[in-house]
Design goal:
By secondary structure, the chain is of the alpha+beta class. It is built from 24 helices and 14 strands. The protein is extended, with a radius of gyration of 33 Å. It starts with 5 loop residues before the first helix and ends with a helix. The relative contact order is 0.12.
């Protein structure tokens, strides 16, 4: 007997006298909880060093760069502790480069759909992206990658604002996610399981899972056993690690555990076509209505089948265990990594910690030296010199008159700051640049006036190339994310919902892609039906990573337009302009109205349309663009 609903599980785990079948079911539920706890404990232990380094990396970002022992020592010696944070601008620069890249979601047809269907699906994904604050969520994820080496985005369907459900995705804290540590791949296709967790109070837990209200007692350790015992008494050796319970804040961790379940299932094979279909209840109902001749063409075989399931636990309490509600057949937690060479991946911050420590200590030593030099001390003959209290006061108050008896006190001359102090700071800064590969030109800090613009551009490109692996490592995660969003839209958005979204997008932008594609379509319902049933692919389109690179691309395209009139569509030029999106959209609408875009399905400009020819007054907009671009490129 498999219990799916929270009500069934809550009833199962209450104290009672079960029959044999219930005993077996209860034993299976308890075994599942043990397996989940064992998997999380193993993952926690194997990634403990990474988690410790990740927490330290986050602390470095907010200027918490001194250890407790160092702070205690400096306070006891009354020494200054300076934090000159050079890691922060490096992470912010990587985040800025990603913003500049302008990643675009593009859907292409695969089977059963047209190119126009794919364009409408692209616009639907843009709607989901805007609705989920996608840019912000992705950037937060990327900052996690730059800092810790890991980042996660979780796809879901939210019913908070819409009864039909909204497809959403959210960034998840990498420290709250546990994964199959025995997998050699960071990509989740071969993970056996992955868990998303969150801490809640007893009141919050009862509100979230009201079916278990009478069993949720955090003070009693949420034991699912009949006899409620303390964590150490039931063999929970890690309960003090705050992995499942936090006795200080009286909170419990809710664990949403996604896992692969392998089992044998019935598969229907059509003997003529060879098509294989899972023989579930829905298929069998259709099969029973087939005529005898058609039934004879179907053969049933046993096949191993792997499905995605989700179980939720709260310490020893099993809250749910059911098949995944999503049809994409993947874990909804999408992984991203930074730099991985051996074992765990790490972010850029990990490699910059040593030069940052060197920089902090060099500055602190210099300031300590200067502080002590102001009152370096006195050689005062005992009984014949000045009053010691007066000499101590001399270092803190101006205009003090020092009276002495017979022997004049001699001031101790402090040692001068050496070039070594300044060399340490310079070396630390140099190491920062060489390790991060973000040179002065990329950071915008170059001050030499004799370097040509082309040389600066070449150095900027070198800095971008050096960090391409960090950006490329995230492209696979974006691919997984896009494919899951397509599947969720197909599964959860009704035809009426898609139609209303299309109407809204058409009203907001009458000259946009959606409006253009749906005009003249006699039956939009057939288009939506194809979109919900067809197969799409998802590709990632990234623009040049800096304004300078975009200017070079723009100049190249403008020159091509001069050499080969009509070869470059006007909207491509507009897309590369560094202007606000509202202006860019108006320019696209303008050139569309002027007939400067290719006709639908055509490979070149509309007959008679000027394209990018620079010979006529109708191209004044693009001519002006070229002049401005050339001026910017020269600068």
């Amino acid at each position: 007997m498999i219990l799916h609903t929270p009500q069934e599980l809550a009833s199962l785990q209450r104290e009672s006298t079960p029959d044999d079948e219930e005993k077996a079911t209860k034993k299976a539920a308890h075994s599942l909880v043990e397996q989940i706890r064992r998997d999380l404990t193993t993952s926690f232990r194997l990634t403990k060093d990474w988690r410790k380094a990740a927490v330290e990396s986050y602390r470095y970002m907010i200027n918490k760069q001194w250890t407790d022992a160092e702070e205690k020592y400096h306070e006891s010696q009354r020494r200054p502790m300076l934090t000159m944070n050079k890691i922060l601008p490096n992470v912010r620069m990587l985040s800025g480069i990603e913003r500049q890249a302008r990643e675009s979601m593009i859907v292409v047809p695969r089977r059963g759909v047209t190119a126009d269907d794919a364009k409408i699906m692209t616009e639907l994904l843009s709607f989901v992206d805007d609705d989920s604050l996608g840019l912000w969520e992705r950037l937060r994820k990327s900052q996690d990658v730059y800092i810790t080496g890991r980042g996660y985005i979780k796809t879901d369907v939210s019913y908070e604002e819409n009864n039909d459900g909204d497809v959403v995705f959210r960034r998840r804290n990498p420290l709250a996610v546990f994964k199959d540590s025995l997998s050699e791949s960071w990509y989740n296709d071969d993970w056996r399981w992955v868990a998303d967790t969150s801490w809640v109070t007893e009141e919050e837990a009862k509100e979230l899972w009201s079916e278990f209200e009478d069993q949720i007692h955090i003070g009693d350790w949420l034991s699912g056993e009949i006899a409620i015992m303390q964590g150490d008494e039931i063999g929970d050796k890690d309960y003090r690690e705050k992995l499942f319970l936090d006795d200080n804040s009286r909170r419990t961790r809710i664990v949403e555990y996604w896992y692969r379940k392998r089992e044998e299932v019935n598969v229907a094979v059509h003997l003529d076509s060879g098509v294989k279909i899972l023989a579930d209840e829905k298929f069998m109902a259709l099969y029973e209505r087939l005529p005898p001749l058609e039934k004879s063409k179907v053969e049933f075989v046993k096949k191993p089948f792997t499905s995605i399931w989700v179980a939720t636990i709260m310490n020893w309490l099993l809250l749910q265990n059911k098949p995944s509600p999503f049809m994409h057949g993947q874990f909804p937690i999408v992984p991203y990594i930074g730099l991985q060479f051996y074992e765990e991946p790490y972010g850029l911050v990990e490699y910059l910690k040593d030069p940052q420590r060197l920089r902090n200590k060099a500055f602190s030593q210099m300031l300590n030296h200067l502080n002590r030099s102001a009152n370096s001390g006195w050689l005062n003959k005992e009984g014949e010199g000045a009053d010691p209290a007066l000499l101590e006061k001399f270092g803190s108050i101006a205009g003090v008159v020092i009276s002495y008896k017979e022997v004049k006190p001699d001031r101790i001359e402090p040692a001068q700051l050496t070039q070594g102090h300044f060399a340490l700071v310079r070396d630390a800064d140099l190491e920062m640049r060489e390790i991060s590969l973000l040179n002065q030109e990329v950071l915008g800090l170059a001050t030499q006036k004799t370097i040509s613009g082309r040389a600066i551009e070449a150095r900027q490109r070198g800095g971008f190339v050096g960090n391409e692996d960090i950006f490329d490592n995230q492209l696979l995660g974006d691919k997984i994310l896009g494919m899951q969003l397509i599947s969720l839209v197909q599964q959860h958005y009704t035809p009426e919902r898609i139609s209303s979204i299309i109407d809204v997008m058409s009203g907001v932008n009458p000259q946009g892609i959606v409006s253009t594609l749906v005009k003249g379509v006699p039956n939009i319902g057939s288009v939506i039906d194809r979109m919900k049933k067809g197969e799409f692919n998802y590709v990632i389109d990234k623009g040049p990573g800096s304004a300078s690179a975009r200017q070079v691309t723009l100049s190249t395209l403008l020159q091509m337009g001069r050499d080969f009139p009509g070869s470059v569509p006007g909207d491509v030029i507009v897309e590369l302009l560094d202007v606000p999106e509202s202006i860019r959209q108006r320019m696209k609408e303008h050139i569309t109205a002027q007939g400067m875009l290719p006709a639908k399905g055509a490979g070149g400009p509309v007959r008679g349309a000027p394209g990018l020819s620079t010979g006529g007054p109708e191209n004044s907009l693009l001519n002006e663009t070229a002049e401005v671009t050339e001026g910017v490129s020269e600068v």
